[in-house]
Amino acid sequence: MSSENSSSNSDQASPFVRPAAPGGFAASADVTATQAASSPANTSPRKGAKNPARRRVVGTVARARLRADLADRDRAILAVLGMHRFLSTHQVQRFCFPASNQLRLDSAAREARRTLLRLKRAGVLQNVTPRRVGGIEAGSGVQIWQLTSAGHRLATETARPSAEPSWRYRAEAPTTRFLVHELAIADAHLASIQAAADMRAALQVQIEQRASRTYTGLGGAALRLTPDLALRLAGEDADGAYEDRWFMEIDCGTESLPTLVRKCEQYEAYYRSGREQADSGTFPLVLWVFHGIRAAARATELRRRILRAGRLTPELFRYAPADSVEQMLTSGGAV
């Protein structure tokens, strides 16, 4: 995060912070509900595991016809799934069917379900977990969606330049652990959208591979840093124009704290390389977002370890539970 025209108060507090009005955001229950199902050991899709859903083959002619018939909202759904890989019905609704009150929210939910089922029948979407899961939404069917092979190709063909999916399609079922992390990234993206609306700021978001940075380490080694998200918020407040930049790391409680500290060390190395500052003039704040019942305890312990390490710059890092991401962003990182 940076501020091109920071106030005197922000100068006194931290060179990284821009004070702003607070906000509020409730994280999606889909993350907790999916996480409650199981916790496999792998953090990436298990190789060789095929998605049990029946695949429908969509040929070139049929795909061309589909592309011509796609409505703007259909394209938006393909685009956001091309960005995130996996989304719950509720998340698709929030991305593509915004509503301003409860009546419109109910209507948007029905329209989202109808549209998703229509795209599924067309062969461009499929369910990842078409089963009931426990957790907060115990007894309810949490539908998780992904692109089919044909949907992935359509998303690539219809995306604006540089916005096509950055991942290769695989017909493999993801592990629950990987799926939970991807849904949590989508929740952080949604919180960022809400924060930008509250701040009346323009928002740019990069996800995972598109957020990656390369830099030169000790001895001239080529290194790569891959945040879960990279954000840029640009707007104006009482103090003038500002630009806040953030890196986000999503913690679902599945990695050890030493692993989190090592990721902080990667950010420190990238910060000391000066590459980001040379490209954009500032270095973003790094926001750790914690999910799960131990979120507060893990945030406290990570902060303690960063302070104790001595080799890290504590001012670079911020910490927030999943339901406080919007508030952290609208505050500009003020602590």
From TrEMBL:
Residues 47-56 have a biased composition (Basic residues). It holds the Pfam family Replic_Relax. Residues 1-56 are annotated as: Disordered. Residues 1-10, 26-39 have a biased composition (Low complexity). This is Replication-relaxation.
